[in-house]
Write a structure and sequence with these properties.
This protein is mainly alpha-helical. 70% of the residues lie in helices and 0% in strands. The chain has 15 helices and no strands. Helix 4 crosses helix 9.
Length: 288
């Protein structure tokens, strides 16, 4: 029964890794191909390290990631804790469905909704003008861009994280809450001493995985808004590789940047997992 899944994994995840050989070639996709393109060693990687624009984009990517990590990551935990306190199963299910619904929206629709709400001709700006105030356009504000994409990510994907944490909360032994209540613990003390310790392994695991994907911001989300705020504020590693590598046909440069991104992500996962072990959590894998 697992053979179809293994076949898909091999075809779409592992066999394409052989194409990374173009990172070491002066790759000509039209005439020479992989077998005929000359090898240039680490020249493509040297071009990356000498490209000051690449390092600016890398820093910009990490700034956006840290903003999302600090402002986005705690929200699913907080909302899951709030939903867990709702006694009515029907109300809890309704709120969970409403919050989870935007996860199925495409980024085109999400950006369109924000444009209609917070753009220069959006509902908020029009309402302010009608009441004698000066309007604003958050969609073209370069200094606000990292907070804008974070707000969009919260609205779209916070519901998925809520489901994960609610599943972890459902596994907490209710006897612990009853024992804590008998000992005189109030609601806040029960949450602090029972609920949060039960969530710590899940929080640590998701945090490690999130840190490992620091350079994997949503390509489509950024690309759709790149021209509105300019590449100086919105350019991330994926869009930069697409513009300077794939769009211009410089596939060797793009492949080298992709390998760098993969190695950087692995290093981030190992580092975050080491921190999780130091805090007494298992992380992605257990400490031997």
């Amino acid at each position: 029964m697992t053979l179809p899944a293994i076949a898909l994994l091999l075809i779409f995840n592992y066999i394409p890794l052989l194409g990374n050989i173009v990172a070491f070639q002066d790759y000509d996709v039209y005439d020479l191909g992989i077998t005929g393109s000359p090898f240039v060693g680490f020249d493509n990687f040297a071009r990356i390290f000498e490209d000051y624009r690449f390092w600016q984009v890398l820093i910009n990517t990490l700034v956006i990631f840290l903003t999302q990590l600090l402002l986005f990551f705690p929200i699913p935990i907080a909302v899951a804790l709030l939903l867990n306190t709702i006694m009515s199963a029907r109300v809890r299910a309704w709120v969970q469905a409403v919050v989870y619904l935007p996860h199925f929206f495409s980024w085109v629709l999400v950006v369109t909704v924000f444009q209609q709400m917070f753009g220069g001709a959006g509902l908020v700006a029009q309402w302010m003008r009608e009441h004698g105030h000066e309007g604003f356009d958050l969609m073209t504000n370069a200094s606000f861009f990292k907070f804008l994409v974070t707000a969009q990510a919260v609205w779209k994907d916070a519901g998925w994280g809520i489901i994960v944490f609610l599943a972890a909360l459902a596994a907490v032994n209710t006897d612990l809450y009853e024992a804590a209540a008998v000992d005189g613990a109030g609601r806040w003390h029960r949450m602090w001493h029972v609920t949060l310790p039960a969530l710590r392994p899940v929080i640590a695991l998701l945090l490690v995985l999130r840190v490992g994907s620091a350079l994997n911001l949503d390509f489509e989300q950024i690309l759709l808004q790149r021209d509105q705020v300019g590449p100086g504020a919105s350019e991330i590693l994926d869009t930069y590789i697409w513009w300077t590598g794939i769009k211009t046909g410089d596939f060797g440069y793009a492949a080298a940047a992709g390998i760098f991104k993969g190695l950087f992500s692995v290093a981030m996962v190992l580092g975050a997992n080491k921190v999780a072990h130091m805090l007494g959590e298992q992380g992605v894998y257990s400490k031997k």
